[in-house]
Amino acid sequence: MNKASFMRFSGICSVIAGILYLSIIIWSSTSLDELGSVASLIATVLLVFGLVGLYLRQMNAFGLFGFIVYVITTIGTVLWAGFMWVSTFVLPVLQERAPELAKGDPPGLANVGLQISLYIFFIGLLLFGILTAVKRVLPRWAGIILILAIILNFIPFTQVVAPLLLGISLIWLGICVSKGEYEESKGVI
Fold first, then answer.
1. Do the Cβ atoms of 111 and 76 come closer than 8 Å?
2. What is d(CA 176, CA 138) in angstroms, rounded to the nearest whole number?
3. Four-point Cα dihedral 17, 20, 21, 22, nearest 10
4. What is the rounded distance in angstroms from the CA atom of residue 105 to the CA atom of residue 181?
């Protein structure tokens, strides 16, 4: 596979991840919430592949700090994918067979692991969005939308908007990467 083909693949993974994150809004408001868990798991796994292309497209502008941010973002995404796997396949079994274990926050060390995974995932994406917005190799506004998506996860009653913005950002960035285009003018906001 040559570089152009890989970048197309990576961009398409980002686009599909974005579409799946958008679909979470639909699934979570219906009785088909289990499909939302599956969509979120697949989206998070595809995001790992999408991040590679998003980083490679901006690698020269990102520098060493950007590489560190990419590594943190990838680790956070992989950790979050693990949590999504548990939510998709283990939690439903626990709810059926041991409902007292499935109520509320996970116990002890499981909760610590969940929080660490969540915060590494969010911090990585937040920093990745900031670098994307500042370096302007890919659309600045796509980076800003990514930043807003992460921030809104921590504001009550706005969590429904966060996956929408995350999806829009990933679709926009993925299209730019898959087409091999976009170099924003440094003087335009």
1. no
2. 7
3. 130
4. 44
Please give the model's pTM, rounded to 2 decimal places: 0.89
Could you tell me if 102 and 94 are in contact, meaning their C-beta atoms sit under 8 angstroms apart? yes
Q: What average pLDDT does range 47-68 have in this prediction?
A: 96
Torsion angle in degrees (nearest 10) through CA of 58, 62, 63, 69: -110
Residues 6+ apart with CB under 8 A from 112: none
Name the DSSP letter for residue 106.
P
pLDDT tens digit sequence for 32-46: 778 888 999 999 999
What lies within 8 Å, CB to CB, of 93 at 6+ separation is none
Q: Sketch the domain layout of the chain as residue ranges.
A: 3-179
Torsion over CA of 66, 71, 75 and 78, rounded to 10 degrees? 90
